[in-house]
Amino acid sequence: MKTINGDMLRGHLETMILSVLDRGEAHGLEILHRLEQAGSGLLRMKEGSIYPALYRLEGAGKIKAVWEPKPHARRGARRRIYSLTPKGKREFAKGQTEWASFVQVVGAIVGAPA
Amino acid sequence: MSEEVLTKLIVLVERAVRPVRANVSRKRLMREELLAHVTAIFEEEAEKAGDEGTALERTRQRFGDPLELSSELQRSVSKWNRIEGFLQSARLKPGESPPHYAGRIAVGAVVVYLGLTACLVLQVVAVTGKLQLWLPHLGSSPVVAAFPVIAAFLGMLVAPVHSRALFGTRSERNLRLAIVCLAASLAFLPGATYLTYFVLTQIAPDHDDIREFADVCWFSLICAPMFPLCLVAGARTYANDFRDEQKWARLEIEE
């Protein structure tokens, strides 16, 4: 199966991040790993681009972040641990509904129903 | 991880973050978080590949084009944060000489003052409808507009000196200089007020505004400690921001 790259993910990335965080808090790299795992290795995105999406979600109050107390690596900087806010949970539920209806409608049109 | 590799990773992050227009704390957050990320990628790749060169190349590929990321990061910065970043750019820049800084701030203060005066003139013209009538209606307003500009100008000149004298590097710390700055700043508000009052009495001795301004003169003496208090309150943040900016600004990021 063909891989799904960053351009195709545009517009859905934020909902996918909410979905990952709905399963538990995580830092940026962990979110990417969970996304790749859930996408069975078919999701391919430039890793840096997850952070603008995280900052947008944080700015919109859908997720919150705390610095981990100590740097992860011996020489490394600290990571931030992200989790869903109540608003994020509501947005995610809304996103799931919208996605289901999108897949149903477009699937019916292109002849590949969900 | 060797020092050389760490520097290359820092440069990779800086290429993405430096062009972003945001306040200092937002950029600091981006730098630290992205550095933590690229360090973790490098560790993963070094474990797989076994040599640092290949791991570094894979890290770059996985991280993506810094320029593209830079514009994405810019879009994630709010309008207010961008404005705050713009205002912070008026502060002393790493590597900037004190005379250059003083000149830059003076030019900025003059521009702000002229802008304020132009606004006052336009306001009077809008009300009276006639340009030649603006002066009597405007009265002493342009002089009064100079008052906050002078006070802000003096504050901006002293703030970097004071913060570094208190919380700078070991060689920069100088308690006596910090105390001198605080003592001088105590005179800023009354000094600017009385200077404005003096100019007003010279150019328009019979104007009503002068009586009102005389009351402000007394009030400025009561409020005088506000300036040194603000300097002390902001000193640590100012010094930390400056040190942080200086550390990253030293990096050569051109390929």
Brief sketch in words of this structure:
Chain A is 53% helix and 12% strand. Chain A has 114 residues and is an alpha+beta fold.
Strand elements of chain B, count: 0
What is the total tally of β strands of chain A? Answer: 4
Terminal CA distance of chain A: 17 Å
Q: Mind telling me the C-alpha Rg of chain B?
A: 25 Å
Write the CATH architecture name of chain A.
Answer: Orthogonal Bundle
Uncertain regions spanning at least 5 consecutive residues of chain B: none
pLDDT averaged over residues of chain A = 84
Q: Any idea how many domains of chain A?
A: 1
- CATH fold assignment of chain A: Arc Repressor Mutant, subunit A
Task: State the shape of chain B.
Answer: elongated
The CATH superfamily of chain A appears as: Winged helix-like DNA-binding domain superfamily/Winged helix DNA-binding domain
Unreliable stretches covering 5 or more consecutive residues of chain A:
none
Determine the number of helices of chain B (DSSP H or I, runs of at least 4 residues).
12
Strand content of chain A: 5-15%
Oligomer: heterodimer
The percent range for strand residues of chain B is under 5%
Structural class of chain B: mainly alpha
Largest interface, with Cβ-Cβ < 8 Å?
Answer: A-B, 23 and 29 residues
